Amino acid sequence: MTKVSMTVNGKPVSGEVEGRTLLVQFLREGQGLTGTHVGCDTSQCGACVVHVDGKAVKSCTIFAAEAEGAEVTTIEGMANPDGSLSTIQQAFQDHHGLQCGFCTPGMVMSAAALLAENPKPTEAEIRDYLEGNICRCTGYHNIVKAILAASGQDVAVAAE
Amino acid sequence: MPKDHGIGASQKRREDVRFLTGRGRYTDDINLPGQAHACFVRSQVAHGRLNGVDTAAAAAMPGVIRVFTGADFEGVGGLPCGWQVTDRHGQPMQEPGHPVLAQGKVRHVGDPIAVVVAETFEQARDAAEMVDVDITELDPVIDMKAALADGAPKVHDDLSSNLCYDWGFVEDNRAAVDEAIRNAHHVTTLELVNNRLVPNAMEPRVAVGDYNFATDDSTLYTTSQNPHVIRLLMGAFVLGIPEHKLRVVAPDVGGGFGSKIFHYAEEAFCTFAAKQLRRPVKWTCQRSESFITDAHGRDHVTKIELALDKEGHFQAIRTETYANMGAYLSTFAPSVPTWLHGTLMAGNYKTPLIYVNVKAVFTNTVPVDAYRGAGRPEATFQLERVIDKAAREMGIDPVEIRRRNFITEFPYATPVAVEYDTGDYHATLDKLLEIADVAGFDKRRAESAKRGKLRGLGLNCYIEACGIAPSQLVGQLGARAGLYESATVRVNATGGLVVMTGSHSHGQGHETSFAQVVADMIGIDENMVEIVHGDTANTPMGMGTYGSRSLAVGGSAMVRATEKIIAKAKKIAAHLMEASPDDIELKDGRFSVAGTDKSVAWGDVTLAAYVPHNYPLEEIEPGLEETAFYDPSNFTYPAGAYACEVEVDPDTGKVTICSFAAADDFGNIVNPMIVDGQVHGGLGQGIGQALLEGAAYDESGQLLTGSYMDYAMPRAGDLPSFTIDHSCQTPCTHNPLGVKGCGEAGAIGSPPAVVNAVVDALQRAGHSNVTHIDMPLTPSRVWAAMQG
User: Fold this and answer.
1) Cβ neighbour number for residue B240 with a 10 Å cutoff
2) Do A39 and B202 touch (CB under 8 A)?
3) Which of B30, B349, B563, B610 falls between 20 and 30 A from B366, CA-CA?
4) ipTM (interface pTM)
């Protein structure tokens, strides 16, 4: 067992982990942050995406020990300080960008990373960026729409 | 003006806030004090004799509490099948046993043999690798026709063959259909495969069993679409626990699509082991494990013949289907290729004579059961493909041949035992032609051609039977369950309502749309209505969510219960205002006496019900709580028309979906935004089936597509934005909401549109020999078709 320390959603946390403990296990089981989900075992589905030092990372793909000293943000840390939904979260609700909610945390984290890199993406750029996030419920239609809306673009025009 | 509240309003979903902030509570988020972890040891071979299981080394591993094998389940019931099909000779289907853990034989890769329970999951997994399983491999049967050959290895030694049943429908029509086809002006024949799919809800299955030895109560937390059904099946048929000592909770569930209807071995195991060990036992499915344990879908091999007269009127249909059951009968498997498939073979058309033959076959593969659409996609696909082929052979426009045969008068009794209550197939087809801009296709095709791409247009219609189902009818057809739904409406003293429903929401947004219905009936704010579902301890016995039934059946139960509430509330209001109950009107949450200015508020009445000081106690009881069970008198029949445009790359065979349009008639609509989302999702799965998805087994019974590295799930870049419309509405005539259901339409209607479009593209490019390509239409298949 080794001790690992990092900042999660602005708070310093630490814990004892096995070498094989994944970051997602540390977050879910160690920190009780169950918003980050595990949907596969081959790093394909993206339900576990979190931000590590500002970058979107599949938390099933790195060991907890590798995040030593990192700044980690999970879905629990995405709302505004007053608890209201952030722009991207609100856009997902407004445009019905989620159904069962299981892929949603990863989708929101990927979408936020996309908009940080590319504030006005086209529909094609959004669809390309979401290559690592699988949703089984929405057919992606409203997820794409929500991200366009969150970027401040006219949904109807941008979708052309 | 779009409505801003009540029935017909696109209310934002209340459940979204918890899902968007990481505050959902899925089964894997539940951890109980003292919980142990289970890891299953599964068969790595498709078929074998199980000689012995040596657990000694595993039991000695760190943290191991106990290792269970089939021997621990001797005397425990097997997993039951909920539907008994009778074959064309009047005999019941062959029904094999389905043990919780393998007894004597293993029958598919993934069949559970042993389970290690340990302090942590990692310890359980480490120890599971030390379980020594002695298996003598037997020849497997994978291909259905090979499984039916004389001398084929038997999946179940105690059955006479691998044939589960040979079903004929309607058997009395058989001779007349044969005669009509023999004498027809033209007969179009098509052989096709409806590819095997893996449902792949994004949340893998999870089960947590708990047992309180002080009270002898068992609790199972599970990823289920129907917790009451699991309680009944597991309690009565597997573990022998009466319902009052067994609670089943299905909290937030991350998608189901049918795969979470069924009662699975892991649920029974965790409940059983928790009692044995007197501590909670949790199992969380790994995705690669779900590929070999969750029931698969589809997997039909079909030959269909369509007889036409010289004007293209349909005279008769004859189909022969081989339907894969897999190694065991999953909960509702026998019903899918029969009563959910044969009954839909009329489609939207007035074909006078239809005969459907289905041979259900056991093979050494994962069990196959209902997956989004369940039987209806298989019916729609073969029918709409053969119509397209017939239109081409007879030189009739594919739109025209459909119009020529549409059912136009309702109610309409089909020759396959169902009666459509209402519909307008010309209206949805007209709407489709408009929204898909079919008139502009030639121009778009020319533009594609300039870029060297082959463009094609595919259209089709569909109909489905939803709102499952009239209990007495399905009882006659072999169902071992009723298919009503229930609701309890509890009004609190200060006027808020809690509605407890047997339906279950796992993505459908019931907490929002159900509240819209009840609030609309009373005329109060939707935020005053809370929807409770998913826990047998606080909901009335209900059959759950599948078959696009929740609003049509569960919503109708809610309406009936709310009507009882309103009737009683009117009596209380009449007493308060010293008027006759017959004169009381309820509008916008106020009760008034007709023709006067006297009124009392909703809250005055609800308070009086619970503080009955001024109250007609001699006539009515205090309190305001009512329950209703609703049993539908018929199925509902959503229908519509879909169009797909594709571009095919002639060099590679790659198919790109350029556009997809859907015009659906779902009857009345409660929340248009949610309905849109249901259609989008269904289209995603249907297009996935058509282009990408397919479960592939090799000859030895190994699943080649056992992870997301191999099984092609549709990703955002594989799909277009959709053009959809549901303004054509012929309300259902027999349920109080006039709703039909929308959950499966997209998955039912879209595969034939895609395949019709690709065949159209190739035909237009001169590949006149290409009349069909089996799904999924991978580049290699399309390219090969162009070479041949």
Assistant:
1) 11
2) yes
3) B30
4) 0.98
